[in-house]
Amino acid sequence: KICILGQPPSHYKQLDYTLGYSDFTKGITMPIIEIILAIICLFLLIYFSGYLIPENYSAKSSVVIESELKKAWDYITDFKNIAEWSEPVESIEVLNDPKKNGDNGNLTWMEHYKTFSLKLEVLDHIDYDYVKLHMMEPDFVEGTIWLMKYRQIADNKTQITIDATGKIKNPFFRLTSKLLGNYDKTTNMMLSNIFGCKITNN
Fold this sequence. Notes:
It is a single chain. The protein has helices at about 20-50, 70-75, 80-85, 100, 170-180, 185-195; strands at about 55-65, 90-95, 110, 115-125, 130-135, 145-155, 155-165, 200. By secondary structure, it is of the alpha+beta class. An 8-stranded antiparallel sheet has the order 2-3-4-5-6-7-1-8. A hairpin with a 3-residue loop joins strand 4 (about 115-125) and strand 5 (about 130-135). Helix 1 crosses helix 5.
């Protein structure tokens, strides 16, 4: 409220100087509410789209590396070396090594990446033939089994085939895998990042 100057006190005229505050805030609030509602709707759409995708999945991919079978097997299955040949892995933490401590448990380790870590264990293996890995943590890969089969296809070429099966509980990760193409393509992308060489689906 302000007064008009030059008039006697008895004739003060009060003016409304509120600038239409309610209309002003209404003009700002409505777009914000609409944006929030749009974000919520998008979130629900993504969630339920992923929810409709089955949890169980399977994938099969192969990689060919320039190495004889024995050398490839000895190096790759010595999982302490993973950080050397897998670029995304920053470090390895061995949790249980039966060869060192005489324990009857499985070889178990953590793979530390930039933003997350994976816990894995060896369930079974036959030297120079196959190794079966179990991804234990985090939750979105829990229960995933990788069966890695080794086969020499030439004098200095070894093919490693991975049969992956598992369950993706998180609807967002299920939808992401589908948007990337399919589980085979997702596995191929992971293998190409790890081995940095030719990928096939044989």
